[in-house]
Amino acid sequence: VSSARPGKVAVVGAGLIGRAWAIVFARGGHPVALYDASATARAQGLGLIQLALDEMFACGLIADPAAIIAGIAVTEDLDAALRDAVHAQESISEDVEAKRALFERMDASAPPGCVLASSSSFIPSSRFSEHLAGRARCLIAHPVNPPHVIPIVELVPAPWTDAEIVERTRTLFASVGGVPIVVRREIEGFVLNRLQAALLNEAFRLVEDGYVSAEDVDKTIRAGLGRRWALMGPFETIDLNAPGGLGDYARRYGAWMFELARQQAHPRPWSERLIAALDGERRKILPLSEHPRRQAWRDRRLMELTKNLRDEEE
Ligand SMILES: NC(=O)c1ccc[n+]([C@@H]2O[C@H](COP(=O)([O-])OP(=O)(O)OC[C@H]3O[C@@H](n4cnc5c(N)ncnc54)[C@H](O)[C@@H]3O)[C@@H](O)[C@H]2O)c1
Prior knowledge:
Blueprint: E1 8-12, H1 16-27, E2 32-35, H2 39-58, H3 65-70, E3 72-75, H4 78-82, E4 85-90, H5 96-109, E5 115-118, H6 126-129, E6 138-143, E7 152-157, H7 163-175, E8 179-182, H8 192-208, H9 214-229, H10 234-240, H11 246-263, H12 272-285, H13 291-313
Parallel strand pairs: 1-2, 1-4, 2-3, 4-5, 5-6, 7-8
Antiparallel strand pairs: 6-7
Helix pairs in contact: 1-2, 10-11
Nicotinamide-adenine-dinucleotide is lined by residues 12-18, 36-38, 41, 91-94, 98, 102, 119-121, 142-145.
């Protein structure tokens, strides 16, 4: 496979994530077949991809949008999409039954050498691949939105996923500009959403108990923790925050962190009352009609940031 031209990729589901994956693989030179069960999603797919490519071009992230879009073919035929594919990236709704049915079809139709990956955010692939003849070629490849801008991909093998499949998938994502990590054993929510959940649950708790407003929580991340997080993770952060490095930090502050963890130990569901209050506040700041504009703004700023960070790394 190594010396050959980039192999064909089937992207199954042309929603937010599927369209972004199509861009990622086509940008990496792979011919992409983009399939969706919905006629509307198929009809809108290329137009929405074109808009994203225009933005990427304007931010200097890509040189030739036309070449990328020329590599993407939308199809209503799943079997045709999978024909000759080396990798299939499922990106349909987050529904275990739907994924189970689709993986059955994909396993029956895809050529034997084709990896079957799922973009699922929370569901370990063993929940929908166990009964498949080709279960050794199934795994999770979870991105964060928008994957054509943010490079992380969490690879999560099921207990029966072939180690060689994980390795091949890691190589594939790295070769198209992704930053793959491997989650060694299955766990719900994998790593990214478990970290996100810890933060969100604490944010809900602090607001519910009246310690702080939602707006000020957002400021704390945006103007505080998030600034560093664009550059480095939590371990590097604490390593740089004590003169003697991580060990020094742990000796100085570890007991405090443990005390806070104790106070955070008893999780609560997000209450309907709190959700309504938070939603009300958000809607005052941003009416739903303004969502698309703000999302476009976010993606644009993320592209500029990505470009900036990439230039620095090069
Ligand atoms: N949106 C995010 O932030 C995000 C981030 C990472 C991962 N994910 C995961 O990616 C997957 C897709 O999420 P999304 O945000 O793109 O959703 P979406 O609703 O935007 O897109 C889903 C698409 O799948 C199509 N679809 C549904 N069932 C199908 C089927 N059986 N066969 C073919 N097409 C089908 C729908 O028509 C739709 O176009 C989910 O598993 C989600 O958890 C989402």
